[in-house]
């Protein structure tokens, strides 16, 4: 049986969201005891929990989630241990670790602050140097255990999305991948014509 690792936060009513974003509202509308069946409704913004940013998020006329090819959301995984860096730079070892079309995951350790104000207000950011290097390397997807790769005016967002690299924010459990020699990442969103979407991100251990 395949060994799978869940890298996503669960959804729940009033879960933490980025400051100013729409709250998550999960409500039971029908119950089996009274109505003969159970049914729930979910009201949420598209950037709650572990989610995908498509180019449209910051680029007028950019690709929507439903415009992105399916193979963009699955690929060889590469975990970068960048813990302890307030501004994440480009390490000399990256050239050996990262291949074109990889799904790169940044492990900062910041998920330890999930559910606190500090998680959103005092998180590490990606340097211009690293963003430029990842673009030149030709990666297909960038994920991170952060609420954002940057802060206002969101230049790193614009740079990466403008280069056609979708982003996955609010990953968790990345430490579980630290001992794996090889793994695959899958992060399929709903096919919706919008700028973002919650995703269930899963890593699959390779045994070869």
Describe the structure.
The protein is α/β, with parallel strands linked by helices. It has a single domain, classed as Glucose Oxidase, domain 1 (3-Layer(bba) Sandwich), CATH 3.50.30.50. Helix content is about 15%, strand content about 25%. The protein is built from 5 helices and 13 strands. A 9-stranded mixed beta sheet has the order 1-13-11-5-7-9-10-4-12, covered by helices on one side. The chain is globular.
Q: Determine the structural class based on helices, strands and strand pairing.
A: alpha/beta
What's the CATH class label?
Alpha Beta
Number of strands: 13
H-E string: EEHEEEEHEHEHEHEEEE
Q: Within the largest sheet, what's the order of strands?
A: 1-13-11-5-7-9-10-4-12
The Cα radius of gyration reads 17 Å
Q: What is the CATH homology-level superfamily?
A: Putative cyclase
Please count the helical segments.
5
CATH topology type: Glucose Oxidase, domain 1
Tell me about the largest β-sheet. Answer: 9 strands, mixed
- What is the helix fraction of residues, given as a range? 10-25%
Overall pLDDT: 98
Shape: globular
CATH architecture: 3-Layer(bba) Sandwich
* Strand percent estimate: 25-35%
